[in-house]
Structure prediction request, 876 residues.
Amino acid sequence: MSEPTFSIPRGMKDIEPVEMERRIWVQDRILDVLRRYGFKIVEPTPIENLETLEAKCGPDIRSEIYWFKDKAGRNLGLRFDLTVGMTRMVANRFDLPEPIKICAVAGMWRYDEPQFARYRFFHQWDAEIYGSAEPEADADAICVGMDVLENVGLREYEVRINNRKLVEGFLRRIGITQLDQVESVIRVVDKLRKIPRSAFLGELRKTGLEGSTLQRVLDFVEVSGEPDEVLSRLKEFLGGDEDQAMRGYDELVRLFDVLEGFGRVRRCILDMSTVRGIGYYDGIVFEAFDKGSEDIGAVFGGGRYDKLSQIYGKRDIPATGVAGGIERLMISLERSSAMPGLPSVPRVFVAAVNETSRRKVWDIVQRLRDKGYSVDFDLRKRSLRGQMEYADSVKIPFVVIVGPKEIARGVVKVRDTARRSEVEVEVERINEAVSASS
Amino acid sequence: MSEPTFSIPRGMKDIEPVEMERRIWVQDRILDVLRRYGFKIVEPTPIENLETLEAKCGPDIRSEIYWFKDKAGRNLGLRFDLTVGMTRMVANRFDLPEPIKICAVAGMWRYDEPQFARYRFFHQWDAEIYGSAEPEADADAICVGMDVLENVGLREYEVRINNRKLVEGFLRRIGITQLDQVESVIRVVDKLRKIPRSAFLGELRKTGLEGSTLQRVLDFVEVSGEPDEVLSRLKEFLGGDEDQAMRGYDELVRLFDVLEGFGRVRRCILDMSTVRGIGYYDGIVFEAFDKGSEDIGAVFGGGRYDKLSQIYGKRDIPATGVAGGIERLMISLERSSAMPGLPSVPRVFVAAVNETSRRKVWDIVQRLRDKGYSVDFDLRKRSLRGQMEYADSVKIPFVVIVGPKEIARGVVKVRDTARRSEVEVEVERINEAVSASS
Prediction:
C-alpha cells in the first residue's frame, strides 16, 4: 500500500497554539472596541450564491474566489469579504432604526497567489454604518479603526484620508470626463506608493494622460500633509465652480472638524493619492499604515460606498465602513514587540509520588481547576521522575508533588520550575503558592 | 432589468446580533474550561484535500460534505469536523512531548438535509488527547465535557458511558464474529433510544440476528444504570474468558475509579446501548444529554479512537477526545433559561441640544468610550427630539443631554430611559450616573 501523505491544500495552513492564542487575544481586543462604539456583532453566511458575490465586483471575481456548484447544480461561492454579506443583510430591512451600525470579525477566502503572510484563508474585522450620509459617520468609522490599533497596542501609525468626489471632480475639471478613463486613472493613482516611480509614470501614461494634463494629475496626487495646510493648498486645484469636487472638499472640512472634536487630527494626513483601487467607493476614503510595517500594506482601510446597497436592496442606503486584516495586524504587533506574552502551557502540573497518591492528585487537580487555574496531571502512568521530566520538557511553571507522607500531614511540595526551588505548603494554600510570579 | 433577490443558499443563515453575542459568550466560557484543563487551542485548515476527508470515513462521505475541484483540478472539501484536522496535525509530529492535548472551537460544513436547529454551517468545540492509552485520559475528556456544561450553566444532564471493546467482545462471545455483522449490529444499537421499539427490533433482525442470540443482544443493550451496580450485573454477560470484553470491562472499572476521584460519578450512567454509530471508535465511548432537551441529541460526545492516527501518520498514537455542538448547546441553554441576558444596544447615547453643543458631545463620547462604555451619538444631524426618539426606539438605557446653558455650568442632564427620570450631573461624574442599574 502506498504511503499517503495528507498534505494540506496550497495557500492553506493549520493554526498552531501560539498563533491561535494571539489571534484570540487580538480578536477580543477588537470586539471590545467595536462594542464601545455601539456596533452590533453579526456574521453573514460563509457560503453565498455566486450571483451575490458577482453583484459587487462583476463576474471577473470568479478568478479570485472559491466557487463551485452544489449537488443541486447551483453556483455557490465562499465569502471573500464581510461587506457584501452585511450589506445584503441590511439592504432589505425596513424595520431597523437607522443608522444601522453592525460589525463582524470572521474568516474569508480568496483564491490569490499565496505570498508572504498572505494565505487563502484569513480573518478580518469589519464595521459598517448604514443610513447616514453625514461626515460624522465617516469620522466614527475612522475613530473606531484608530481605537482598534490603540487597543491592541499599536501606537506608531498614520491615517491617510481623501475623498473620491474630490479626486473625480478634479479629474473632470481638467478634462478627464470619460468614466472609463477616470476609473483607470484612479486605479493607477492607488499605486503611487506601492510601485517604483518609473512604473507609476508608465502606467499613468497608459491611461491616455499626456503633456500638461499628466503634469496636473501628478501635481495633484502628490498633495499630502497636515489636513489644515492641505485644505488651503487644494484651493489652487479647485475652481470653486465644480460641484462634485467642492462637495468632496466640504465633506472633508466637516470630517476634520469632527475628528478634531474627537482629538484625532494629529494622526491624520490628507493625501490626494489615497483613493482605494476598488470601484464602489464614492466619498471619503482612508487607509491606515503602521509606520514600522508599511510594506505589509494598510492595517485598516475603508470609506463611503453610498451606491452598493442599491445593488442588494430595493432602495438607497448611504453607507460607510472600515475593515482590517487580523493576521496583518498580528504581524505588525509582533514586529513592534507590542504582542503580549500569552500563556501557552498549563500553569500547574500535579505529580503523584506513587500509585496511592493518585487519588489525592485528582482531588487537587479538580480544586485548582475550579479556581480557574490551568492544570494538568499524569495521563500515562509515569513514574514520579517521568512526570517531572514531562513537566520540565513542556516548561510548566509549577509542579505540585503529592506524596503519601506529606498528605498524611496535610501538605504538598510545590516546585518552581524556573527557580528550581521547592517549598512545602498546606493543601488549602496551594493556589497562593502557584499564584506567585515564577 | 429583472429585480435580483440575493437570497442565501439553502441550509445557510446569517447570524443576527442577539445570537452572535450568545455564541461569543458560550465560546468564551468553553475556551475558559478548555484552558483550565491544559488544552492548547489550534485551528485546522477549513479546506482540506478531499482524500484527507475520505480517509476517515470512506468515499461515501462525498455525499454528505461540500467538495469541489479547485482551479488546478485538485479535489478539495470543506472540513466536516475538527477531529480529522487535529489528528492530521499531530500524526506526523514526533517533536511534541506526549500526551498532546489540543482543542479547537470553530465552524464546519455538512451537506445534510436542513432540519430544526440544524444548518449546513455550524460550530463545535472539540478537545483531543493524543498519546495516552490510559483511562485517565478518557476521564479527562469526560470531565472537560462536564465542566463545559457546568460553566455555561447547564446543570441537568447525564453522561452515558460504555466501552466498544466490551460490546464487541460480548457480541463475539455469543457468536457474532463477522466484522460486517458486528458493525451493523452496533449501528442499530446506537438507535435504541432514537427510534420506536418496533423499528429498532426490525432493524436488529435485518442484521441477521434471531432467536436466542437476538434475545441476548436485547438483554445486553438494555443494561443501564448506576456504574457500580451495572459493573456487577455485567458479570453475568461476560464469561471472563473473552479477552476483548474483559479488557473493556477493566478499562471501565479504572475509568470510574478516576471519575470517582474527580467527584463525577453521580452524573454518570453505565449504559450498554451507548455505542456511538461511527466506525472508528474502539474503546471507551460516551454521550451527554441535557435532561430537558434529549430531543436535540447529545450535548457532547466522544470516545477513544486509537487507530485513526495510523491513517494520517506513520505510527500509532492512542487517542481519545470529546466534542459538542455550539448551536445545540445554545438551544439547551435558551430552553432551560440558563442563557444570561447580554447587552445588545449601546449603554449610553449622547445627544446634542443644538449645533453648538455637538463639539462637547464628541468630547463626552470619547471620554466615555475610553472608560469602556458602549456609547453612541447622532450621525444624522437630527434635532434633539429626533435624537431622543432614536435612543428610545433602540432602547438605549441612558441618554446624556448636552446643552449650551448646562455646559456653561459644567453639567449635563442624564436621562434614565426606562424610569423616564432625569438628573443633572457634573461632566466628570457622567460615568457614575450611567453605571447605576437602569
User: Anything to note?
Assistant: Residues 7-154+298-343 of chain B form a domain with the BirA Bifunctional Protein; domain 2 fold (CATH 3.30.930.10). The mean pLDDT of chain B is 93.
